[in-house]
């Protein structure tokens, strides 16, 4: 099956969701308060060694240009694109560890042979969305810890409705506040080679009832 055919099939799989865009957004759980909808950036931090090594092997894809931060306008079309790309790679790439795949503890790469771990899913989704015309400064590789305390990577998409997470562990696209992950760091919106630490989701401030 060709890559394009896979995308067409994935689009058909998620087509029912595009008929209920409002329900999709409700499922994603984007907070109404924009101060909660966007992950708080704290300070610059070290780039993951996996990213540094990836950039040494794919130098042309890791430019150091400074860009103006932007976001994806969340519409029926952009939601469909995000859902289609997420579904395609989640279904077509077989999960394997780097040790099983490459014989090393850590290697970030594209899953060109149909196998990969979490970072590889993220890189593939990011590249496809860039190829589709979405701005790379809104498609941010993000490192988290899951509920077992283990490292994991997801793609965070900054939108005008808040930050969304594309994850190889689930088909649903969720607000960053709904994943249950502890957020460690992500690419900066101004440069993909600058990384920033992130704060935790905060609960809405309670107000006294009258």
From TrEMBL:
Protein name: Transglutaminase-like cysteine peptidase
Gene3D superfamilies, per database record: 3.10.620.30
Pfam families the UniProt entry points to: Peptidase_C93
Domain of life where this protein originates: Bacteria
Keywords in alphabetical order: Signal
Species whose genome carries this gene: Camelimonas fluminis
Signal sequence segment: 1-22
InterPro entries: Transglutaminase-like_Cys_pept
């Amino acid at each position: 099956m060709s890559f394009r055919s896979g995308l067409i099939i994935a689009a058909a799989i998620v087509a029912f969701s595009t008929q209920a865009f409002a329900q999709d957004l409700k499922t994603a759980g984007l907070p109404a308060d924009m101060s909660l909808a966007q992950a708080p950036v704290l300070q610059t931090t070290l780039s993951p060694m996996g990213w540094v090594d990836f950039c040494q092997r794919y130098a042309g894809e890791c430019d150091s240009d400074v860009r103006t931060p932007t976001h994806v306008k969340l519409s029926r079309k952009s939601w469909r694109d995000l859902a289609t790309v997420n579904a395609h790679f989640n279904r077509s790439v077989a999960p394997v560890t780097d040790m099983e795949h490459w014989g090393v503890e850590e290697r970030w790469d594209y899953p060109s042979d149909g196998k990969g771990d979490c970072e590889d899913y993220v890189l593939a989704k990011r590249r496809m969305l860039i190829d589709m015309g979405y701005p790379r400064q809104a498609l941010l590789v993000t490192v988290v810890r899951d509920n077992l305390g283990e490292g994991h990577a997801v793609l965070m998409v900054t939108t005008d409705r808040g930050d969304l997470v594309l994850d190889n562990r689930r088909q649903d696209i969720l607000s960053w506040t709904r994943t249950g992950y502890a957020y460690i760091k992500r690419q900066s919106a101004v440069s993909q080679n600058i990384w920033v630490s992130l704060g935790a989701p905060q609960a809405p401030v309670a107000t006294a009832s009258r």
